[in-house]
Design brief:
single chain; mainly alpha; Ubiquitin-like (UB roll); Receptor-associated Protein; 2 domains; about 80% helix; elongated
Length: about 400
């Protein structure tokens, strides 16, 4: 049977290999005897056919936080692992989480490691499986579960703050779109009919506005098809790593939003690596997991480059500095953490620093966007009023 293996050499190089063996346990023993550090062993065919459906199912973050809180409580109480998983799978209200936990329970029952069982389902974050693996190796599963739960809560709260800050600007954009659509489809045609019946000589501004609005209305179907086609084309292009990388470079260079997005990505990276290192994971494996966990492809590539430098013997701060992407403040703080031997705590401080910075910058940006959007709505309304009331003033002058 063929297995997909993720292993590390004695020098710290992480490899993905396809190996043949009679069983998973035999392959693990063989790789360990050859001096490899085994991260995961996944049956190739079974993983592709049995669990493909699980990977498409998203587990709500709030449900996952509740599960981890309950899992930590049961683990501290001394309840056997299989019994804990069975109890949690039975009482959860999330169908996706229940199916995934039943799969984890069955794999643990058949002899798989807990971290591998969670990794096999494809429904859980990679950082979670890596954290569990660190707990299994160090024999302190309760401690690393508590650290991950704290990481979950902080990250979730931070993301909720960002979403809450963007709700009002999003509402204004939606309101402006509805207003423009209403003006084009309802107000403009009626004014055009009115002035046509009166035979009024229209000002140039009014003529241009009516022509543009009527043209937009008559071509609404074509415009809608073009928008849908463009959206589908963008979706197809988005699957290309090169396209996503190019977009990442563009968005990090945007005047106001670019620095904000970079700070968010750096904070995400620092918190992820800090949690993994605090759990006892080696630096190379922590960087590999962080690379697979961050949302930015550009940051992920920088982490991969830094990981190769760390494998070669350089420090983490020097390796990250060589990418030219991370802010100097973050690099200086990481260097201090390496020097003092408190890198996990310093990475957590880096995350807190940039998360607070993002909160402040986001509040300032939203405060700037709000009046700009309101001014945009006011300008649209004023433009429509001027364009369609000018002929009325002209008509009134002719009557007098």
């Amino acid at each position: 049977m063929e297995y997909v293996c993720k292993i590390a050499t004695a020098s710290g190089q992480v490899l993905d290999q396809l190996q043949k063996a009679e069983s998973e346990s035999e392959l693990r023993q063989r790789l360990a005897a050859e001096g490899y550090c085994v991260f995961s062993v996944q049956p190739k065919d079974w993983l592709g056919s049995k669990l493909d459906g699980f990977r498409r199912r998203k587990i709500r973050p709030d449900d996952f936080i509740v599960f981890n809180q309950q899992f930590l409580t049961l683990s501290k109480s001394g309840l056997p692992l299989q019994k804990s998983l069975e109890l949690l799978a039975r009482q959860t209200r999330s169908p996706q989480l229940r199916v995934a936990l039943e799969s984890v329970r069955d794999q643990v029952r058949s002899g798989a490691l807990l971290s591998d069982a969670f990794s096999f389902t494809g429904s859980f974050p990679k950082i979670y499986s890596a954290t569990l693996r660190a707990g299994e190796r160090s024999g302190s599963l309760d401690r690393v579960l508590g650290q991950y739960l704290s990481y979950q809560r902080i990250s979730r709260t931070f993301r909720k703050k960002i979403v809450a800050a963007l709700i009002y600007p999003s509402f204004l954009v939606f309101f402006l779109a509805v207003l423009v659509s209403f003006v084009v489809s309802f107000i403009v045609p009626r004014f055009a009919m009115l002035y046509g019946d009166l035979g009024v000589q229209l000002p140039r501004l009014t003529q241009i506005t009516i022509a543009a609005a009527l043209g937009f209305k008559h071509m609404a179907l074509e415009i809608l098809i073009a928008l849908v086609g463009g959206a589908l084309a963008l979706r197809a292009a988005w699957r290309s790593p090169r396209t996503r990388m190019a977009w990442d470079r563009i968005r990090f260079r945007l005047p106001l939003a670019g620095p904000l997005l970079l700070k968010f990505s750096v904070g995400e990276f620092a918190r992820t690596v800090g949690v993994l290192l605090a759990g006892g994971l080696p630096a190379v494996e922590a960087l590999e997991t962080a690379r697979a966990s961050v949302t930015s492809p550009l940051i992920a590539k920088a982490i991969e480059d830094a990981k190769q430098e760390v494998i070669g013997g350089r420090s983490l701060s020097a390796s990250l500095r060589g990418t030219g992407l991370f802010p100097p403040t973050a690099l200086d703080m990481i260097e201090v953490g390496e020097t003092t031997g408190a890198l996990p705590a310093m990475l957590e401080s880096v995350a807190e620093f940039y998360e607070e910075d993002v909160n402040i910058d986001l509040s300032a940006l939203v405060a700037l966007v709000d009046p700009v959007m309101i001014a945009g709505v006011a300008m649209v309304v004023a433009f429509v009023l001027v364009a369609f009331y000018l002929p009325l003033f002209s008509l009134a002058g002719q009557v007098h």
